[in-house]
Amino acid sequence: MAVPTAAMGPGSMAHWCSVSSDPTHYVLGMQELFWGHRKTSEFRAHSAKVHSVAWSCDGQRLASGSFDKTASVFLLEKDRLVKENNYCGHGDSVDQLCWQPSNPDLFVTASGDKTICIWDVRTTKCITTVNTKGENINICWSPDGQTMAVGNKDDVVTFIDAKTHSSKAEEQFKFEVNEISWNNDNDMFFLTDGNGCINILSYPELKHVQSIKAHPSYCICIKFDPTGKYFATGSADALVSLWDVDELVCVWCFSRLCWPVRTLSFSHDGKLLASASEDHFIDIAEVETGDKLWQVKCESPTFTVAWHPKRPLLAFACDDKDGKCDSSQEAGTVKLFGLPNDS
């Protein structure tokens, strides 16, 4: 389904598509685009803090998971998000969710209630609930769509068959597991840990391949760029590191944040990297040069960001109340940056 150009305002889609690939010209072109599309709108999603946001593979839907034990799904219509459904069934906080990488109708949620739930937006029902051994804090879906990996607070990662919903393997790690991800080729499995390391396992064998000392402090998050050229890590040292996938060497460090880096997201073309923390802004960097391209202002800490899979739209969620009793600031909102200024 074609994405309507009206969603980005007259002429803006053509402008975006014609931005030069030369890094310097690309930065200037994207800065010009964002100057006309720097509006951030927020949309009520939950009754408590939002922990996770993610786009479906076709970009038509945005899902969010919350401390209120629910997930919500929005439809992207022109320059706004329209709430489609709320998904109830967990008995504890929904800490992370992700979509099936090639099926825009399926997503999975991981909860502290020791379960994961697979949902189908066509029926608004839970397809299945899978019981796990611990309180789940992170989840990812393999690029080939065949396996889900879920990690819990006890540093156990369970690999679940996406068709049979049964456990294929289970690994107990002796280090603090912070985030997990397959590489784009589906033959390596990466884990960031509390020692500042990136741990790499072969897949599906799950044999240790390499551990890389990436940061002097906790290595918190990891994301692979859609082109397969780079991956990025974020750390408690407030640094974002960009790594060459093939060489496994660090090519850039971004140091514009002052607080631990909690979340990362690459744009669909792999040219932009968004990173966020307790700083009251989201840093958007041009990947090839490390230059700051834009800064999205926030009123409170940001703990989840996600670029749209086809367009320069950034979804994110903040700690809305920031510990304050401010009735003018709703809890549980999702935000969308990159909208036309006059929308």
TrEMBL record:
The keyword Transcription does not apply. The gene is LOC102432610. GO terms for cellular component: nuclear speck; THO complex part of transcription export complex. Keywords: Acetylation, mRNA processing, mRNA splicing, mRNA transport, Nucleus, Repeat, RNA-binding, Transport, WD repeat. It comes from Myotis lucifugus. Component of the THO subcomplex of the TREX complex which is thought to couple mRNA transcription, processing and nuclear export, and which specifically associates with spliced mRNA and not with unspliced pre-mRNA. Required for efficient export of polyadenylated RNA and spliced mRNA. The THOC1-THOC2-THOC3 core complex alone is sufficient to bind export factor NXF1-NXT1 and promote ATPase activity of DDX39B. Its main location: nucleus. One of its GO terms (biological process) is RNA splicing. Pfam families: Beta-prop_THOC3 (PF25174). Transmembrane segments: none annotated. It is found in: Nucleus speckle. PANTHER family: THO COMPLEX SUBUNIT 3, THO COMPLEX SUBUNIT 3 THO3. Belongs to the THOC3 family. InterPro entries: Tex1/THOC3 (IPR040132), WD40/YVTN_repeat-like_dom_sf (IPR015943), WD40_repeat_dom_sf (IPR036322), WD40_rpt (IPR001680). This is THO complex subunit 3. One of its GO terms (molecular function) is RNA binding.
